[in-house]
Amino acid sequence: MERDIGKPLFDIFLLIVSASAFVAASALPNVDIPGDLSASFFPQFLSALVFILAIPCLIKDTRQWRSKRGAEPSSSATSPARGVAQWGFIIAALVAYIYTFERLGYIASTALFIFLCVMGLTVISGTWTTLSAPKKGLSVLFALIFSVVLAGCIFYVFTDLFQIPLPT
To answer: How far apart, in Å, are the Cα atoms of 55 and each of 60, 67, 86?
Structure first.
Protein backbone atom coordinates (compact mmCIF):
# COMPACT_ATOMS: atom_id res chain seq x y z
CA MET A 1 0.00 0.00 0.00
CA GLU A 2 1.13 3.48 -0.80
CA ARG A 3 1.76 5.89 2.03
CA ASP A 4 0.62 9.50 1.73
CA ILE A 5 3.28 12.01 2.69
CA GLY A 6 0.95 14.97 2.10
CA LYS A 7 0.25 15.70 5.76
CA PRO A 8 3.89 15.88 6.93
CA LEU A 9 4.77 17.99 3.90
CA PHE A 10 1.92 20.38 4.64
CA ASP A 11 3.11 20.64 8.26
CA ILE A 12 6.62 21.50 7.05
CA PHE A 13 5.09 24.07 4.69
CA LEU A 14 3.23 25.63 7.65
CA LEU A 15 6.46 25.81 9.65
CA ILE A 16 8.33 27.52 6.81
CA VAL A 17 5.52 29.98 5.99
CA SER A 18 4.88 30.89 9.63
CA ALA A 19 8.59 31.45 10.29
CA SER A 20 8.82 33.59 7.16
CA ALA A 21 5.74 35.57 8.18
CA PHE A 22 7.23 36.15 11.64
CA VAL A 23 10.43 37.54 10.14
CA ALA A 24 8.52 39.64 7.58
CA ALA A 25 6.26 41.07 10.30
CA SER A 26 9.27 42.21 12.29
CA ALA A 27 10.14 44.49 9.39
CA LEU A 28 6.83 46.36 9.63
CA PRO A 29 7.36 50.07 10.23
CA ASN A 30 6.55 51.53 13.62
CA VAL A 31 3.27 53.36 13.20
CA ASP A 32 1.43 55.20 15.92
CA ILE A 33 -1.62 53.08 16.63
CA PRO A 34 -3.93 53.20 19.62
CA GLY A 35 -2.85 51.01 22.49
CA ASP A 36 0.52 49.80 23.63
CA LEU A 37 1.08 47.22 20.91
CA SER A 38 3.16 47.69 17.79
CA ALA A 39 1.88 47.04 14.30
CA SER A 40 3.96 43.87 14.13
CA PHE A 41 2.51 42.32 17.30
CA PHE A 42 -0.58 40.67 15.85
CA PRO A 43 1.07 39.15 12.73
CA GLN A 44 4.00 37.93 14.82
CA PHE A 45 1.67 36.50 17.45
CA LEU A 46 -0.36 34.59 14.84
CA SER A 47 2.67 33.30 12.97
CA ALA A 48 4.32 32.16 16.22
CA LEU A 49 1.09 30.43 17.24
CA VAL A 50 0.86 28.62 13.90
CA PHE A 51 4.52 27.60 14.17
CA ILE A 52 4.11 26.25 17.70
CA LEU A 53 0.93 24.34 16.83
CA ALA A 54 2.41 22.90 13.63
CA ILE A 55 5.24 21.18 15.51
CA PRO A 56 3.08 18.56 17.30
CA CYS A 57 1.11 18.08 14.08
CA LEU A 58 4.34 17.38 12.20
CA ILE A 59 5.46 14.88 14.85
CA LYS A 60 2.10 13.06 14.85
CA ASP A 61 1.75 13.02 11.06
CA THR A 62 5.34 11.84 10.55
CA ARG A 63 4.84 9.01 13.04
CA GLN A 64 1.63 7.97 11.27
CA TRP A 65 3.33 8.14 7.89
CA ARG A 66 6.21 5.95 9.07
CA SER A 67 4.04 3.34 10.75
CA LYS A 68 2.27 0.58 8.91
CA ARG A 69 -1.00 1.69 10.47
CA GLY A 70 -0.60 5.08 8.79
CA ALA A 71 -0.22 3.36 5.41
CA GLU A 72 -3.55 1.57 5.60
CA PRO A 73 -6.56 3.50 4.36
CA SER A 74 -8.83 4.59 7.17
CA SER A 75 -12.57 4.17 7.02
CA SER A 76 -12.97 7.72 8.29
CA ALA A 77 -10.72 9.19 5.61
CA THR A 78 -12.38 11.59 3.25
CA SER A 79 -12.64 10.79 -0.40
CA PRO A 80 -11.08 13.17 -2.92
CA ALA A 81 -14.55 14.32 -4.07
CA ARG A 82 -15.57 15.04 -0.48
CA GLY A 83 -12.35 17.00 0.07
CA VAL A 84 -12.99 19.09 -3.04
CA ALA A 85 -16.56 19.71 -1.86
CA GLN A 86 -15.28 20.86 1.53
CA TRP A 87 -12.79 23.27 -0.03
CA GLY A 88 -15.42 24.54 -2.45
CA PHE A 89 -17.82 25.12 0.42
CA ILE A 90 -15.21 27.06 2.42
CA ILE A 91 -14.40 29.26 -0.58
CA ALA A 92 -18.10 29.94 -1.22
CA ALA A 93 -18.61 30.75 2.47
CA LEU A 94 -15.65 33.15 2.42
CA VAL A 95 -17.03 34.95 -0.64
CA ALA A 96 -20.43 35.24 1.08
CA TYR A 97 -18.69 36.51 4.23
CA ILE A 98 -16.90 39.22 2.26
CA TYR A 99 -20.17 40.41 0.73
CA THR A 100 -22.10 40.39 4.02
CA PHE A 101 -19.39 41.91 6.21
CA GLU A 102 -20.25 45.58 5.65
CA ARG A 103 -24.00 45.02 5.41
CA LEU A 104 -24.42 42.97 8.59
CA GLY A 105 -21.44 44.21 10.58
CA TYR A 106 -18.66 42.20 12.10
CA ILE A 107 -20.45 40.24 14.82
CA ALA A 108 -23.46 39.10 12.79
CA SER A 109 -21.52 38.25 9.61
CA THR A 110 -18.73 36.47 11.49
CA ALA A 111 -21.14 34.48 13.65
CA LEU A 112 -23.07 33.49 10.52
CA PHE A 113 -19.84 32.52 8.72
CA ILE A 114 -18.62 30.38 11.64
CA PHE A 115 -22.02 28.71 12.01
CA LEU A 116 -22.23 27.94 8.28
CA CYS A 117 -18.69 26.54 8.25
CA VAL A 118 -19.28 24.27 11.24
CA MET A 119 -22.64 23.00 10.03
CA GLY A 120 -21.68 22.82 6.35
CA LEU A 121 -18.53 20.83 7.00
CA THR A 122 -20.44 18.55 9.36
CA VAL A 123 -22.94 17.79 6.60
CA ILE A 124 -20.34 17.44 3.83
CA SER A 125 -18.13 15.17 5.95
CA GLY A 126 -21.01 12.74 6.41
CA THR A 127 -21.06 13.08 10.19
CA TRP A 128 -24.54 14.63 10.12
CA THR A 129 -26.17 11.47 8.78
CA THR A 130 -24.81 9.38 11.66
CA LEU A 131 -26.42 11.57 14.35
CA SER A 132 -29.79 10.91 15.93
CA ALA A 133 -32.46 13.63 15.86
CA PRO A 134 -31.77 14.86 19.43
CA LYS A 135 -28.02 14.97 18.74
CA LYS A 136 -28.65 16.91 15.53
CA GLY A 137 -30.61 19.48 17.53
CA LEU A 138 -27.84 19.73 20.13
CA SER A 139 -25.25 20.04 17.39
CA VAL A 140 -27.11 22.97 15.84
CA LEU A 141 -27.55 24.60 19.25
CA PHE A 142 -23.89 24.17 20.21
CA ALA A 143 -22.72 25.40 16.79
CA LEU A 144 -24.91 28.48 17.19
CA ILE A 145 -23.62 29.19 20.70
CA PHE A 146 -20.02 28.56 19.61
CA SER A 147 -20.29 30.89 16.63
CA VAL A 148 -21.84 33.76 18.61
CA VAL A 149 -19.38 33.42 21.52
CA LEU A 150 -16.35 33.17 19.23
CA ALA A 151 -17.42 36.17 17.15
CA GLY A 152 -18.05 38.15 20.34
CA CYS A 153 -14.67 37.21 21.82
CA ILE A 154 -12.81 38.16 18.66
CA PHE A 155 -14.74 41.45 18.52
CA TYR A 156 -13.76 42.17 22.13
CA VAL A 157 -10.09 41.37 21.49
CA PHE A 158 -9.90 43.71 18.51
CA THR A 159 -11.99 46.60 19.84
CA ASP A 160 -10.91 46.63 23.49
CA LEU A 161 -7.46 45.03 23.63
CA PHE A 162 -6.03 46.04 20.26
CA GLN A 163 -8.26 49.16 20.02
CA ILE A 164 -9.01 48.45 16.37
CA PRO A 165 -12.59 49.43 15.53
CA LEU A 166 -14.66 46.88 13.64
CA PRO A 167 -17.96 47.61 11.91
CA THR A 168 -20.94 46.65 14.03
So the answer is: 9, 19, 25
* Structure confidence by residue, pLDDT tens digits, 132-162: 889 999 999 999 999 999 999 988 888 887 7
C-alpha–C-alpha distance, residues 96 and 92, integer Å: 6
Tens-place pLDDT, residues 24-68:
888 877 766 666 667 677 788 888 999 999 999 899 888 888 886
Check: CB of residue 72 under 8 Å from CB of residue 36: no
Closest to 167 (Cα-Cα) out of 112, 115, 109, 116: 109
List, in order, residues 6 or more apart from 109 with CB less than 8 Å away: 97, 100, 101, 103
